[in-house]
Specification:
Layout: E1 2-6, E2 9-12, E3 15-18, E4 21-25, E5 28-33, E6 41-44, E7 49-52, E8 54-59, E9 61-62, E10 65-66, H1 73-84, E11 88-96, H2 100-115, E12 123-127, H3 149-155, E13 162-167, H4 169-172, H5 174-182, E14 186-189, H6 196-204, E15 209-210, H7 226-233, E16 238-242, H8 250-260, E17 265-268, E18 281-284, E19 287-292, E20 295-297, E21 303-306, H9 310-321, H10 325-340, E22 355-358, E23 364-369, E24 372-373
Parallel strand pairs: 1-6, 2-7, 8-11, 11-12, 12-13, 13-14, 14-15, 15-16, 16-17
Antiparallel strand pairs: 1-4, 2-3, 4-5, 7-22, 9-10, 18-19, 19-20, 20-21, 22-23, 23-24
Amino acid sequence: MLTAFLNGRILTDAGMQSGKAVLVDGATVRDIADEAPKGAATFDLAGGMLLPGFIDVQVNGGGGVLFNAEPTVEGLRAIGKAHARFGTTGFLPTLVSSNLKTIGKAIAAVDDAIAAGVPGVLGIHVEGPFLSPARHGIHDAGNFRKLDPGAVRVLTSLKRGKTLVTLAPEVCGTDVIEALVKAGVIVCAGHTNATYDETKDALAHGVRGFTHLFNAMSPFLQRKPGVTGAALDDTQSWCGLIADGHHVHPAAIRVAYRCKGADKIMLVTDAMPTVGSPQKTFTMQGKPIRSENGVCYGPDDTLAGTDVGMSDVVRNARAFLGVDMPALSRLASANAAAFLGLEPVQIAAGGRADLVLVDDDFAVRQTWIGGVPQMP
C-alpha cells in the first residue's frame, strides 16, 4: 500500500523542506510530492524531522545482548531492535577480539540473519584479534594472534553483506592487507601503534579507514605524527568517531572535522549491550563492565565502549560542531554508506525507505527499515 508521510520537515537533496509528502511504496520511496495522492494511507509526522536512517559500523551489542556472547540470529535480532529505537536502520554487529572458531560462528550467524531478513544487519565488523598489545584497550591481549592464511579464509567466508576487519598494520603487514582487500574485505586500522610512515604504507595497500579515531592508536605529536596524524593527513580515508563526549574531547572532534571534511567522518556508537536495556552491568571476556553516564568502563576504569545510541551521538555532534542538517546527516548516514560501498542514503525517488523521525532534540519518534515501522 502507498503511504504518504505528511506534515513534517523532510531532509532531501535540496535541504530541509516543509509542505511536502514523502510517498512510500513498500520498501521504496516512490516520490516526493506536493500532496498525497487520493486513496493513499497517511502518516502524520506532526512537525518532526524526517531523516535518512542512521548507519552505525560499530555495534558490539544492545538490548541486553553482547554479540561476542550471543553470535546468533536471535542475538542479532535483539541488537537491531534495540538500536532501531535510536534511529539506526543499518549496522555492523561488531565482534571484539575472539578466536577463529567464534569469528567463524559470528560470520555464519550474520549470513543467516541477512538471509532471514533480520532488519538492519548489513554485515559484520571483526575488530581484532590482529591488534597491537601496546594499544589493546579493553580487548584481551591474550587473544591476539597473527593474521595467517587460515585466518584469512575465515575472514573472507561471509557470503552476504559486508565484512569489515579492524587490524594493526604493523602487526599484519601489507601483503595480508592486500589479500583481504582483493577478497572484498574492507580493512580499517585500529588498536595500532604504527608509525606515520607505516600507516601511510598501509593506506597505499588498501586500508580504507580508521576505527574510532584518536582512541587506541598512536597519537599525533609534532615529530611523530603516528596513526592519528596519518588519518588526519589523508584525504581519501574514512574515520569513525565516537561522539559521546567522553571517548573524544569535542575540540578533537572539531579538529578532525576540519581536517577530514564533512564527507569522511562517520559517527559511531561503539555500543555495548546496555543500550536499550535496563541492565547496566555485564561481563565481557571474563571482565566485569559497568555503565556510568553513557560510558562503559572495565574494572580498572579502562574505556569499554558506550551506552548510547546513534540519536545520542548525532545530537552531540550537532552541539560539538554546529553544522547544518545536511552535513549532520552525512556524518550519521551517507558517509557510512559510501564507506561500505552501499547505495546512497537519501530521501529521494527510488531510494530505500530507511527513515527516522526525530524531534528538534533528536529524540526518536519512529524508525522505518525498508518501509516497515520498528517501534510500537
